[in-house]
Write a structure and sequence with these properties.
The protein has 483 residues and is of the alpha/beta class. Helix content is 34%, strand content 21%. It contains 16 helices and 18 strands. It has an 8-stranded parallel beta barrel with strand order 8-9-10-14-15-16-17-18, surrounded by 4 helices. β6 (93-101) and β7 (106-113) form a beta hairpin. The relative contact order is 0.09. Mean pLDDT is 93; it is low at 1-27.
Amino acid sequence: MWKRFVAFAIVFCTTLGLVLPVSVSAANVTPVVTATYSVEDQVAMIEYSVKSTYKIKSVMYVKDKITDPESTVFKKNGISVTGYRSFPVTESGVYTILAEDTKGNKGLTTISVTTEFRAVWISYLEFSSAGYTEAAFKKHVNQMFDNVVSMNMTAVVVQVRPFGDAFYPSKYFPWSKYVSGEQGKNPGYDPLAYMVEAAHERGLEFHAWLNPYRVTTNSTDVTTLASTNLARKWLTDKSAYNDRYILSYGGNLYFNPAISAVQGTIVKGVKEIVQNYDVDGIHLDDYFYPTFGNNYAKEFDAAEYEKYKANCVKKGNSYLSIADWRRNNVNTLVKNIYTVIQKVNSDVQFGISPAGYYDKLMMDDRYYVDIETWLSKDGYVDYICPQIYWSFSHTTYPFKETLEKWMEYRTNSSVKFYIGIPVYKAGSDSETEFKNNQNILSEMVQCGRESGSVDGYMFFRYAYFYNSATKKAVNKLLTYLAD
């Protein structure tokens, strides 16, 4: 009815020679400002864009949350960035960007910036192997995440796939007993979906922590695994081709890092998380190849290496040493994970937290973690977080010198650098300094800040923030972080 009325009015006014006022909606004339930011070496670079009907006359920003474009705060404290598309800031907080066009129309946006990443590792050990009802799980997560916020942290790194299992409905991995009480049993709700939602409601980033190769520890009995567990299926079916997809070593079961089909399954497992959940990051820890010792060339996936070597000889090609071949296996997995994340959602960060002893990572009989490549080339990781778990006075790996050594390997500035901090060692007898120095955790953070090159910290792990032995050092740390 109203459309016919408007049409009639237009015809009537036109017939009389009247001029109708032209109404331009506010959305068409108010400048629309959007902003994003990235952090490198404790400096956030805020990038903004403005869409406007008219030419933009000025752009400025203030470190404050302002909702009124006419606020006098802009005139008093505004910093002009007219003519630029980005600007650096060195302090965390909320920033408001105001754009004004030549007609006096103003638009603004706010952006919350964190120049220092601070995360708490929440491992499977923070969950009960007896499982949870949905209500009990949510209550447990709420309490942990509320506490993390009170610690002035910015993120949680939660282990959602510790043993070839999952805290979410997966096409590839069975339900974890740490949510349902029994591997393979559906808890009747989606724990990961709730944790992501709960983290974001509190302003926390959520990073999904995965262990890529580990299937079991201290047991090789596949009958204890769920019937849907790939390890059990591969080792008990009647097919011979997949018998080496799972390897046994040192009383543990592992996915075979040398098998491309196994690597593909691990990558697909990452892809389904990034596709189905609004996670902020995918995180791998320090568990890669086991330590083999002197017989490293004959252990574990040596049979696959011999096949690779024979194939190279047959074709007249050169071949890698078994150590470099294993490094290439890990690098291939890491690169493929990075690539699939970029294809699905390039906003999701991918990082790895290797053990802190950089020299042992480069040995030929263990780990095969190629930190030199990851820290120097694009296409592998967005961040590295070495676990520098020694005191300042440690005879082999003193904290400050170990940090400096790691920084020497970081020749690609686009790779963010975080430090893993050992909250669990505070107050312990592991080293005299951990036992006697209540400031050791805060001094580790201070050391990182003074370097000017550390982008953040991850603290291991949640439960030790509430441990009697660590209490004094933790209180000092939290006071320091709150300043």
